[in-house]
Amino acid sequence: MAEKLPLVPFREEHEIFRQQCRRFVEKELTPHVMEWEKGQNFPDEVFRWVGKMGLHGILIPEEYGGAGGDYLMASVWVEEMARIRSGGVEAGIGMHGLIVLPAIARFGNENQKKRFLPPGVKGEKIGALGLTEPVAGSDLANIRTVAKREGDHYFLTGSKTFITNGSRADFVLVLCKTDPGAGYRGFSTLIVEKGMPGFTQGKPLEKLGWHAGDTSELTFENVAVPVENRLGEEGSGFYNSMANLEWERLIMALGTVCSAQWAFDRTKAYVLQREAFGRPIGKFQVNRHKMVDMAMEIEAARQLNYHALRKWINQEPCAVEVSMAKVFASRMGEFVATTCLQLHGGYGYMREYEIERFFRDVRINAIGGGTSEILKEIAGRLMGL
Ligand SMILES: Cc1cc2nc3c(=O)[nH]c(=O)nc-3n(C[C@H](O)[C@H](O)[C@H](O)COP(=O)(O)OP(=O)(O)OC[C@H]3O[C@@H](n4cnc5c(N)ncnc54)[C@H](O)[C@@H]3O)c2cc1C
After folding, report:
1. HEC string of the chain?
2. What is the pLDDT of residue 244?
3. How confident is the model at residue 3 (pLDDT cuts 50, 70, 90)?
4. 248 noted as active-site residue
């Protein structure tokens, strides 16, 4: 008999790891979510709990306290994080351990890796990524934050907004212009640390979803940043930020599918037990079709994600596939959220049933990490359109 083809990109060791992640999430994190969602910032100690499990260090080499794992392991953690059922918590943890720390591991010098990675992996120091500014998000090349070099320091002036972990971050990777006349080669990334004179971290902003998460403004007034804190070569900032964005987009797409799957499963159980006009509402043909439509969209999004993930892991060009995966997952997520809410009737509108949280949280996927319009532009141009 011919060898069976694998249905998923994951192997046995990944599935064992998945069970560990799931137990941790369901026992230690999800039970607190209702409480955390009432504030705007889940407790800092959660980063240490996650650190104790080794989950911030999946993509970090062992010599800096990490697990030296691969992107498949990291993807398993992303999928299981969706079970926290709070986009704000997932974003805070994911930004720190899956985006900021790996960027330091990839682009940092030896000294930076020794200083920032071990405490980051333990969750004792929290990281953030500062790209977006009040005047420029999609049009990142148009940012205004500048750093002028004088001797051993850069003097950084400008501001960032919508920064995940911004109010509590111990260090932030800040994209700025070090040579405004040099086009894409005029950008650098500086590691700005909490407490540096002139660096102000704003309070969490109020927002539609991600209620438990910290999304804040940062301002820099002539902040003296040692040259030693420059991540990578001077002039490499724009390119390094772009390299990071592809993985960030994949993470968002993978998480959206798993959140949608959770909402689907919950709704399936609900429509089979809730009765109207003498039968379960899921037995009305119109609702059965809605459920099948959702299952179809979720599965299609999952397979597109795995296709993009395989290409990313194989280090093949994958900007088209990653862009398509995120756009498709975002659209699917909104469709699933509104359909699940509708099927729950009035209960869907109530906090207790958690579908309304998914409905609010899912909306960010078409905006954060590159809007759907920008991603279609990227894919379209690469397709020769
Ligand atoms: C909750 C949250 C968390 C975030 N976390 C972070 C973070 O940690 N770090 C960080 O740096 N940023 C973060 N962001 C910012 C996010 O990446 C930006 O909001 C996003 O990139 C869009 O930028 P913008 O908000 O400036 O919108 P704009 O760029 O002003 O876009 C506005 C609208 O115009 C459209 N548009 C723009 N250009 C084009 C075009 N060429 N063609 C067609 N349409 C176009 C966009 O698609 C969008 O619909 C976060 C945002 C939110 C809401």
Report:
1. CCCCCCCCCCCHHHHHHHHHHHHHHHHHHHHHHHHHCCCCCCCCHHHHHHHHCCCCCCCCCHHHCCCCCCHHHHHHHHHHHHHHCCHHHHHHHHHHHHHHHHHHHHHCCHHHHHHHHHHHHHCCCCEEEECCECCECCCHHHCCCEEEEECCEEEEEEEEEEEECCCCCCEEEEEEECCCCCHHHHEEEEEEECCCCCEEECCCCCCCCCCCCCEEEEEEEEEEEEHHHEECCCCCHHHHHHHHHHHHHHHHHHHHHHHHHHHHHHHHHHHHHCEECCEEHHHCHHHHHHHHHHHHHHHHHHHHHHHHHHHHHCCCCCHHHHHHHHHHHHHHHHHHHHHHHHHCHHHHHCHHHCHHHHHHHHHHHHCCCCCHHHHHHHHHHHCCC
2. 78
3. confident
4. yes
CA of 243 to the centre of ligand 1 (A): 17
- Pocket residues for ligand 1 (CB within 6 Å)? 95, 129-132, 137-139, 162-164, 207, 210, 215, 364, 367-371, 373-374, 377
Q: How confident is the model at residue 39 (pLDDT cuts 50, 70, 90)?
A: confident
pLDDT of 245 reads: 85
pLDDT of residue 165: 98
Which CATH number does the domain 12-126 belong to among 3.30.360.10, 1.10.10.10, 1.10.540.10, 3.90.440.10? 1.10.540.10
Catalytic one of 248, 297, 354, 356: 248
Q: Return the CATH number of the domain spanning residue range 129-235.
A: 2.40.110.10
Compute the distance from residue 94 Cα to the ligand 1 centre, in Å.
Answer: 19
Q: Which of 93, 96, 98, 138 to mutate to test the pocket of ligand 1 (most atoms within 8 A of CB)?
A: 138
Could you read off the pLDDT of 275-314 as tens digits, one per residue? Answer: 999 999 999 999 999 999 999 999 999 999 999 999 999 9
pLDDT band per the 50, 70, 90 thresholds, residue 119: very high
Domains 129-235 and 239-382 are alike in CATH topology: no
Average pLDDT, the chain: 97
Q: Going by CA atoms, what residue is nearest to atom 4 of ligand 1?
A: 162
Options 3.40.50.720, 3.40.630.10, 1.20.140.10, 3.40.50.150; which CATH number does 239-382 get? 1.20.140.10
**Nearest-CA residue for atom 35 of ligand 1:** 373
Listed by start position, the domains of the chain span 12-126, 129-235, 239-382
pTM: 0.97
